[in-house]
Amino acid sequence: MTGDETPSDGEESNVTMARRGALGLLGTAGLGTVLAGTASAQGKGNQPWHEWDADVNANGHSLTELGALATVANDAPIADFAGENLNVDDDGVLNAEGSPESIHVVTEYPGDTLDQKLENVLDALPEGDDIPNKQPGHKIVIPAPDPDDPAAADGLPAWRFESPVEIDDNTGKLVFEMGWTLIYATESIESFFVIGPDEKTENINLYGGMFYAKGNVERSFIDIQGVGHMHISRLYLQNLAERNSVPAGIRLADYHGSSELTIKDTEVTGCRDGFLAEYGSDDVPYGPSFDLDISNWRAGGGEHSIRIDGGASITLDSIQVGGHPLQSVSEDIIRLENSVNETRSVSISNVHERHNAMDYNSGVKVVDVTDGEGPRHNGIIVENVDLFHAEYSTDIEYASYFDQQNLRPAPKVNDDAAGSTRWFDDGVQKHETYSSHEFHAGGSPTLAVGEDDVRIDGAGNGAVLTTPDGQSRYRVRVDNDGNLITEEIEDGDDRTGIIESFEDGDLAEYEGETDAYAIDDSAPVGHGDASLKNTSGGTAVIVSTSGLAQYPRAGDAFAAQAARTETNANLGIAFGAQDTDNFYFARIYPESNGDRLQLYKRVDGEYTELAKANVSVERDTLYDFVVDWGEFGEIDVEVRDPSGDAIGSVTATDETFTEGGIGVRSTGALDNVRFR
User: Beta strand pairing status for 594-603 and 606-615?
Assistant: First the structure.
């Protein structure tokens, strides 16, 4: 080419390369010695405008900002170019094609259906180095197909899908990028994807994709059986047949301990359960939903948008149903069940409907499916539920602890649930617990605001008032004839103050091996002038079930001071005692590798450990055993040092005993047993 053949500004050359080839060449290093011949171009750099006409040798540098580039039209055409992903085909066209080996485009793989192409992609993944599975870190791209591709559905830019694709053999760390590609189930299939059917896999990411079925998905669109760290985003799972004709949109049937599943910006229609978490194996700890996060979720077309049977650490945010019948629910938007394990530590927020097409029960249902035999749900936090066609905003029937606020319509709370509700109606804030507004101190209501009156429940208990100087307390009550009675309250008459401090100097209220203990004023002493000491150095059970003013029961919080002594290295407190063979006890026990905080129960003389934790304590030092004995069997024990700092804790749930006496099994010293 000569300088006369160089295109002027605004003109095109009929011998320039195709745009794809030119773009591939520009900015690519290493072309200088190969691109040798006559070339001409106009460009603008740091120098004024100029033309050049010479052989080009870029000395390994990039050629950039070229107005046009043409090959020499002579008898020696260029046969090859140096540079990543550059080649010249048989027609002499420069191509800049290809992609990194870790990116797989399904159109480059054989198959008469998309599932066949995906299986061929998975088979082609290289083996991992020093790991017994496929190499991690690959992306599988699913663009829209050519309508003439044999895998295209009915000649449309959509893929046919006829058999489940299994991500098995711990093939993990894969990304499926589908954009808004259309994917049709053209035959009856169990699922589109099955994740971890044989063993737990990790880091599977599904991004995008519009999946369609006509009632011919037998189990779920996406079936997860064992996975850790999975992300699902921007999926559209649509059943075009009638309501309830597909069991689930996304099913988490845990067989291998799945955890850390995140789903966001996803929509499901026409499925009985938009998201379903159920047991694949009863041996899965915590339940199928462990570290589950679902946000910006739109699902309906059946009974529930989300149904979860057991799990822990669950976050559900921005959950919506409604509009078309295929997007609406007939029972509950969210349903929590407890067939094996309860759900616990659950946060639910921003539950709405977009004009649900039918009436239904509630936005959040917390239910018992075991006829009272299973564990109660624990730690259910709900806020911002606003519904129009639901009978209740929430329906909580079986929970040991819940807290909910900002609800419409009014919630329903069963007597088997304990918690607090705050909601608004016509500008009036309402705070409900059970059928009245009750203030609790310990397990029993001290003040109840009913529909027609304010009550202090309990036969003749009355109200307790404190004198202005704070030194005395008086109970104000009425007798059976309606006469007003005022009487001074001694310590122990209500559920505050000291339970036992051994100031009477004897063990008349106790049964068991009382000869193994003494009450004296030697250190350590926690309250008053004396404390209980073990003098035998061994195990010796004593309990008091009568004779003291009051005893702790389920629903109370209490504490006791205990110490390790030279005589006995154990320290602790027994409670819920029926007799010397039936009680709970918390203790610190010295083991070969350090001290151990333990919570036990003894039933008919047999011991069962409920919980344990490592701690460290000093001799002749009083430690506080702080016991929070929940109304429905939750037992929290925290041990605090003399400064009030916690040094260890254990938690368990057991309803064997709900009331009973106090005592010890084996402790160096015990004192200052008191309500908190």
Answer: antiparallel
